[in-house]
Backbone:
């Protein structure tokens, strides 16, 4: 049909030609061209567009000529003939420029740009999009907006983010002026992407936020706005966290606020409140006058989230205890309306605490009594089995809450009664954390009651017990900072009372409570001495008390004095030659007060579990998991006690076990690598824990040489040969320093033999590197050297079982590599 229509228009054109009516001839040609294009006869269509353009030009109709050239160009572009298409677009633009038809010039430039873009000539495409934008900016804002946007897209694809940003901004500003929010938002999103690519997270977040704000104005675009605000929120929080980590608190404050604002837009009011609160806390720390406004923002967010407890905490942070009390009361009433008596009681008590801060005694008493009654009613419902306990809401916690309310009311006899009941409940449940808390408060309340009766000696003992249990509660952990501060305040109150009744100097001597080690392995036991008394103590000496089969390798040095409030950390290093579980009080502290009166303080009891060390030579598939578990327990226990070298040995042992397992098993390989990497990390932590300015003994230098050798061994097992070489060199440096310091000839000989063994390991590692480079001749020489040294070292003997296995494994590996090389040479 289109063919016939085109032919009809050509016949009409012939008739008009006979009549010399060229305007109608051209009109018919253009119509015929259009129908040929629809029929897929592109050559005929193209010829007629060109013929029309030339005739229009001859007739002086430049507008029509330009249009026909442009249509011919579009036709060629759709056929992929981009070079010819560009020529026609140029012709069109030249004509339009000459007659001042800038709108049509822009269309021609866009056609050229599209041609270049489709052939991936993005620089050229961008150039003509810009020309299109410049040509149409004052006449056609929509064309200018899209042209600058498309130019920016080309630059973005080229990673030319600077120019991309410039033209996205230009497009955004024009679309903003033209009140086209969708176009503005598109540019904002792209600007955010560009800044993200440049790692300018601040600008990226800014434009994601602008995108969210812009799309809010568009109907049915809630999802788009959320997308922008979420990106902005995540980036602002990430920036704030990084700035906080780097101690740039002013910038952290700024970006926590921006993150909070973004999370508010996402209706995530709790996170928004948390971030405002964090910013406000930092402002308070810096002494800024903006704290109140920022914390008020946090309060508003928490109230939107209906988390009145957090809102009340914010009021406390700005010392508005009245508002805190009112907010807690409102929250308590909410839970009461839901028949949640336990929570209602909890928040009524917190409201009472707030009124107590501002000495509003009547309101305080009313709320504490209300809390007590609600807790009692809750317990009654539990006993009648009308409701069930939960992990948080249980009878023990209710009894403890009642006791606390009575304590705050200074009704100590009632408080003592309910602390005893709470303690009984927690003991039945084997709840160690709450047992310690109940013991602490019970001892404190009982101590105060007995002191009121004039029995200072017994009262002092109870208060000392309270202090011990408060500290134990803090040590057990799982408490937030606020509650820890509360317990510390109770400790201070007990200590203040004790100081008033003139007690003796209080010194604590704390050792690692549990240790796990292998026979004849060096075991550090960490010691903390704290002077918690009101006077300086002097002439402090340690008196170790270990059984016969314990060898003391290094004892702590005595101290001349320890000022009040000061703490000193030291350690004692031992070896145990027999397996077993040893429960003992291994240390006493001898000291004097300022008047010369002598005191003895025993350490806490400790448990040392000693087993025979598993040896890798005895590993079998049926017992390897037990050996791994043993090393894991050794590693974790020592890590908990901050014995980093021993923890490193444990993880190295785990790595050695997995190395012995089937190498085809990917899981074993991953476990091996992770274990060696952890061992390296801990060995380095041990090294870094030694003060740089401390003069080291020969024994300590020798030990450092051993640790560096073990790091090298881990790197070799990870096939990180370069680092293995480097750490062997460090190991030898420390062995040489140790050798220079020792006096006995046999000690010097032993250390020098270790240096030779390190040289053998280094030769083997260097040989492996040469094998990787196909330098088999030099590798063979180095392996022969390694084998010779290792054989000599084994023949000399005198090594313990662990070191002997280490030498044997390295000798076997060197011999196998040498044999393999020689066999290759023969082949």
Residues:
């Amino acid at each position: 049909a289109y063919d016939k229509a085109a032919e009809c228009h050509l016949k009409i054109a012939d008739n008009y030609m006979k009549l010399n009516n060229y305007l109608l001839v051209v009109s018919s040609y253009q119509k015929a061209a259009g129908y040929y294009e629809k029929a897929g006869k592109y050559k005929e269509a193209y010829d007629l567009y060109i013929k029309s353009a030339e005739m229009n030009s001859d007739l002086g109709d430049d507008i029509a000529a330009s249009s026909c050239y442009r249509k011919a160009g579009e036709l060629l572009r759709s056929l992929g003939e981009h070079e010819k298409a560009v020529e026609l677009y140029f012709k069109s633009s030249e004509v339009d420029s000459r007659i001042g038809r800038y709108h049509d010039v822009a269309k021609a430039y866009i056609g050229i740009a599209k041609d270049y873009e489709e052939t991936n000539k993005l620089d050229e495409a961008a150039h003509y999009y810009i020309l299109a934008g410049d040509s149409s900016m004052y006449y056609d804002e929509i064309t200018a907006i899209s042209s600058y946007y498309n130019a920016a897209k080309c630059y973005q694809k080229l990673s030319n983010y600077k120019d991309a940003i410039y033209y996205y901004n230009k497009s955004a500003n024009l679309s903003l002026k033209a009140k086209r929010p969708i176009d503005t938002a598109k540019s904002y999103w792209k600007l955010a992407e560009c800044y993200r690519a440049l790692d300018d997270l601040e600008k990226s977040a800014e434009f994601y936020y602008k995108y969210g704000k812009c799309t809010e104005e568009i109907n049915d675009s809630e999802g788009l706005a959320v997308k922008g605000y979420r990106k902005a929120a995540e980036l602002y929080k990430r920036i704030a966290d990084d700035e906080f980590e780097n101690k740039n608190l002013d910038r952290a404050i700024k970006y926590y606020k921006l993150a909070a604002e973004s999370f508010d837009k996402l209706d995530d009011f709790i996170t928004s409140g948390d971030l405002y609160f964090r910013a406000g806390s930092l402002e308070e720390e810096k002494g800024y006058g903006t704290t109140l406004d920022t914390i008020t923002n946090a309060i508003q967010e928490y109230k939107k989230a209906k988390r009145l407890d957090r809102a009340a905490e914010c009021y406390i942070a700005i010392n508005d205890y009245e508002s805190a009390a009112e907010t807690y009361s409102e929250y308590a009433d909410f839970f009461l309306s839901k028949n949640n008596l336990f929570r209602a009681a909890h928040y009524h008590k917190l409201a009472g605490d707030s009124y107590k801060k501002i000495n509003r005694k009547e309101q305080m008493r009313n709320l504490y009594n209300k809390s007590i009654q609600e807790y009692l009613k809750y317990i009654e419902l539990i006993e009648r089995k009308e409701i069930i306990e939960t992990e948080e809401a249980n009878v023990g916690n209710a009894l403890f809450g009642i006791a606390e309310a009575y304590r705050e009311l200074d009704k100590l006899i009632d408080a003592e009664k309910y602390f005893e009941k709470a303690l009984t409940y927690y003991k039945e449940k084997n709840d160690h954390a709450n047992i310690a808390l109940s013991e602490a408060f019970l001892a404190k309340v009982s101590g105060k009651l007995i002191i009121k009766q004039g029995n200072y000696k017994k009262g002092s003992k109870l208060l000392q017990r309270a202090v011990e249990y408060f500290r134990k509660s803090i040590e057990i952990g799982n408490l937030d900072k606020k509650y820890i501060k509360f317990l510390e305040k109770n400790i201070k109150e007990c200590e203040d009372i004790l100081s008033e009744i003139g007690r003796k100097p209080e010194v604590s001597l704390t050792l690692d409570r549990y240790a796990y080690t292998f026979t004849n392995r060096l075991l550090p036991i960490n010691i903390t001495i704290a002077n918690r008394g009101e006077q300086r103590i002097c002439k402090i000496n340690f008196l170790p008390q270990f059984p016969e089969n314990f060898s003391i390798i290094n004892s702590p040095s005595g101290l001349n004095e320890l000022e009040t409030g000061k703490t000193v950390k030291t350690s004692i290093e031992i070896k145990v030659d027999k397996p077993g579980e040893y429960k003992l009080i291994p240390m006493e502290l001898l000291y004097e007060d300022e008047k010369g009166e002598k005191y003895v303080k025993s350490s806490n009891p400790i448990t040392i579990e000693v087993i025979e060390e598993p040896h890798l030579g005895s590993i079998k598939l049926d017992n390897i998991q037990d050996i791994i578990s043993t090393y894991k327990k050794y590693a974790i226990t020592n890590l908990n006690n901050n014995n980093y070298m021993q923890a490193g040995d444990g993880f190295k042992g785990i790595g050695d076990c997995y190395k012995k397992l089937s190498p085809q098993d990917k899981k074993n390989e991953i476990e091996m690598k992770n274990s060696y990497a952890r061992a390296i990390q801990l060995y380095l932590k041990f090294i870094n824990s030694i003060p740089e300015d401390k003069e080291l003994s020969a024994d300590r230098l020798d030990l450092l040489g051993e640790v560096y050798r073990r790091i090298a061994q881990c790197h070799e097992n990870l096939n990180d040969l370069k680092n293995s070489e480097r750490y062997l060199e460090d190991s030898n440096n420390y062995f040489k320093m140790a050798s220079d310091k020792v006096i006995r000839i046999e000690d010097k000989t032993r250390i020098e033999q270790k240096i030779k063994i390190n040289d053998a390991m280094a030769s083997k590692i260097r040989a492996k590197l040469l094998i990787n480079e196909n330098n088999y001749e030099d590798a063979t020489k180095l392996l022969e050297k390694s084998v010779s040294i290792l054989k000599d070292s084994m023949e000399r003997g005198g090594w313990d079982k662990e070191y002997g296995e280490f030498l044997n494994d390295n000798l076997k590996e060197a011999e196998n590599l040498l044999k393999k090389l020689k066999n290759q040479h023969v082949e």
About this structure: The chain has 32 helices and eleven strands. The chain has a mean pLDDT of 87.
